Records
---
Amino acid sequence: MANIDVPTLTMQFPLLNQLVALKEVCWFNPKITSLREGLPFVGLDAADIQDASDRLSRFGSFLMKAFPDTARDQGMIESEVVDIPAMKSQLEAMSETEIPGRLMLKKDSHLPISGSIKARGGIYEVLTHAEKLAIDAGLLSESDDYSQLLSDTFRQFFSQYSIAVGSTGNLGMSIGIISATLGFSVTVHMSADAREWKKAKLRSHGVNVVEYDQDYGVAVEQGRKAAEQDPRCFFIDDENSRTLFLGYAVAGERVRKQFDAQGIVVDANHPLFVYLPCGVGGGPGGVAFGLKMAFGDHVHCIFAEPTHSPCMLLGVHTGLHDGISVQDLGIDNVTAADGLAVGRASGFVGRAMERLIDGYYTLTDEQMYRLLGLLNQCEGIQLEPSALAGMPGPMHVSEDRDYHRRLELTPEKLRHATHLVWATGGGMVPPEEMAEYLAKSV
Ligand SMILES: *Cc1c(COP(=O)(O)O)cnc(C)c1O
């Protein structure tokens, strides 16, 4: 990888001074394009999302039987969209900014099976792998009832294979739980950020947890190396996987159906703004891709990162993508938002999606904790710190006149806007741990 000449780079991109100073920043990318112009750079299309959606449907009977909390939606791993009007008032009071439009929360924090957004991509990739192995072995065909995958025959079959992944916690949770359920031998390489209870929960499912004192990048590299030694081991590559990305992308069509059912209109006069917490980028990137395919140019996606881990903002803003890490600038990548503690962005997502992501901002850990407490107080909803990263987004969008002008977002349109904050995790945090989070929020 090229050497980074920080002084020259900073001269060219003065915003980096603020990143280095750990200031909260917001940057709307002036180079975004329409979906039509941007889509060819993604290299995936509507048919790929449909394929992922169909695959998940085939697994419906299996998921329903293995995880009764998915039975409510016939084996679909999906979360609610809810209004948070009291939080909206609090945010307006706190920031002295009016937020025109409606404020809603997408509760991926409460997705079945693993209680985070990783229950979309992570689980989907393991299911894809399992289906391929079983079909190639002549044990399964697409028209079969997949609930038979829970039988001893299949568990024995899958136990010949292993799965490995590097994670800050939540991806490991998703992949560990679903892999162990199918009978795979599974190893999760956990970065130093990973919470103790997540490791304990995985071990109780029979997952092999390997712990590192270093950050996510190191955990992924070690996982990749270990997997290379074993031809029967499948490594789930969070930094580059198109499969993970498509698992996340299915969310777009699902949100559109949920909006239709609630009579929420998204069109030229009713824009939708979606605020997505970003770590390596696969989750928010995949969801943003799905949303763009579902709502076209009327949806505007904005990524949120901790001030100590602004890897995607850095990669897209400088155009260096995974060629630069926050550590190259002397930023430490240490944050209470363990789901977002990533120093180097995905090499795939930024390049594929940069034209279709309106903007990026950072926020401090203190701000995440404050918002965590507020949301608990006024809406009774409990999230982990990472999941609050999207909450300041509506203020940034409401305040930036240049952005409004460039996108022709008139006051009239903004009054009819829907702001959707993507809550990415927290549904399975143990009560003692949640009490500690809440204690830090005051
Ligand atoms: C993983 C994660 C994210 C971000 O997803 P990436 O694919 O890493 O960008 C956001 N919030 C939580 C809680 C997560 O676990």
---
Amino acid sequence: MDHSGALELFAGKFNVQQGVAFTFFIGSMAMMAATAFFWLSMREVGERWRTSMLVSGLITFIAAVHYFYMRDFYLAHKLSPTFFRYVDWLLTVPLMCVEFYLITKKAGAKIELLWKLIAASVAMLVLGYIGEGIYRDEAVSWVWGFLSSLPYFYILYLVWSGEVAALAAQAGPLVQKANRVLAWFVLVGWAIYPIGYILGTKGGLFGMDLGTDAGFMDLVYNIGDAINKIGFGLVIYALARSEDSAESSKA
Ligand SMILES: *C/C=C(C)/C=C/C=C(C)/C=C/C1=C(C)CCCC1(C)C
């Protein structure tokens, strides 16, 4: 049996589960390729961007490893790998918060700001895990989803008009622009996740029941991860390159 699901997919014997398994496979490859790119590019960017690029690669590296495990789990048990999924997110989402901190540090971002972002992201994920991992098939799971959205809105506020946005503006036009793009990722890219959550919640989609392990939830999460994790890193890379070339044209 082909463990990536590719054979069935291309032989036309498509079923949702094989398709979803294949997106785990593609996901792990894409995350590995992105990791190589971010880490190898560390040599190309100015000194002050090295840590940001290191973190970008850590995010995709951690995801790549989890995707290998998640694909195996999903194929072996025909169940959503909820636990691995949230362990991955608990590591990678706070690292995305570190990216916001690193780009605004030049303008004086304090470590307290980083803790606020991390605390909000951990609260969002823990509340989501309770709804998805513990009360998945119960009517209360939407309540946990709602509670999880509150810290998500707080992060949105910080990056769009709160402290992060203010510091990014002080850090200069290039950082401000990059922060704006990252803020769009948080607004649109991160909003993909609640959609996955709703698809995986019993009766979540206006009372419709797609079946909690039908795979739609994982398909949506996998798309979200590829967009957000690789996208964040590319924004940081573009920022580093544009600052470097702005500086060298000044010199
Ligand atoms: C790389 C992984 C990322 C960027 C994961 C982000 C996850 C979220 C923004 C999840 C948000 C959720 C809600 C806002 C409500 C429902 C429960 C969650 C956890 C899916």
